[in-house]
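Regression test attached.
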Amino acid sequence: MEKIITITRQYGSGGREIGRKLAEAYGIPFYDNEIISRAAKESGFAEAAFQNVEDKATNSLLYSIAMGMNVFSNQEMGFTGLSLDDRVFLAQSNVIRKVAEEGPCVIVGKCADYILKDRDDIINLFISASVDFRIKRSIQIDSLPTKKAAEIVLKKDKSRANYYKYHSGERWDNILNYDMALRSDLGGIDATVACIKMYLDNL
Amino acid sequence: MEKIITITRQYGSGGREIGRKLAEAYGIPFYDNEIISRAAKESGFAEAAFQNVEDKATNSLLYSIAMGMNVFSNQEMGFTGLSLDDRVFLAQSNVIRKVAEEGPCVIVGKCADYILKDRDDIINLFISASVDFRIKRSIQIDSLPTKKAAEIVLKKDKSRANYYKYHSGERWDNILNYDMALRSDLGGIDATVACIKMYLDNL
């Protein structure tokens, strides 16, 4: 399995855990928040500016604050005339391209499938699950407040779709963009990993 | 595996063969043109009117001819005021609902996922493949003329998407509509069947 695996996922679907387990199974690097840290470090951005940028895309207040931040000048960053959002995206894209060049790995979220679309060694996965499953999981794993969990889960879906659309110009939910898509709630996380692995082992 | 499996597929992706092999593996009925024949027989429609109705959706000349056919009256069919196209769809839908009630089976195409969406024992699969794979397969399996194969394959994709949109109001390529989606060309037809079977066996 000499592929770079990108994972796009609905919030609460367990896509990140699936990615981590796949990376473990193949003994290859796993990039999620690690990308963020690396991008932050290499580009000199404050790490805080990168945190969860993907999940902020519909939170207009937070987003406005982030966009209005003048922590560093455009010139300083080398991205003249771009918004903070675009500069963060560009810095992340550079990191994603760099880690992909280092060899097989798993990259979760952050439009990695779009950023790497010109490579021929990419496998794009999409992980979804029922709303109920995702709400329960978000309460358990991410400690979302029970009362607001449903609202947050739906909002996060929307923001991921918007983030993807904004940066790639494409629909996040276009099935033709992916090599494999699976609902993780039907068989559970481990069965989903096993199934993906069987698929990848045949490549 | 006590499920009703619906398969939506790109033309030339091998979705029908995959469906047939899954049905064989589980020893359950397989419905494709068989549905057409059964619908034709039960509703009294001329079988010819049902043939490949799904693939005609962008062929405007043929479609117009079909829509203008007055082979039988609306009253006679019990579908007052509907076009031939809609009457064919309704008759097919009735058959799909009927075979689904009979128990686990595999149904290929014909918006079966949409028609059966209110059941809770449905697994919706989507099979895609690269354009190159589908062109080659169409020439080999469906004996498409080599020179026109590319054009026909792309036209058939479009007509399937249009057919789905017309009858369901939904996008055919919406990933969230499916429980599992796979590209059949990466591992081949048999590996794809094995992978789907592993997934279904976990349900």
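Expected vs. actual: identical. Chain B touches chain A at residues 123, 126, 128, 173-176, 178-183, 186-188, 191, 194-195, 198-199, 202-203 (CB under 8 Å).
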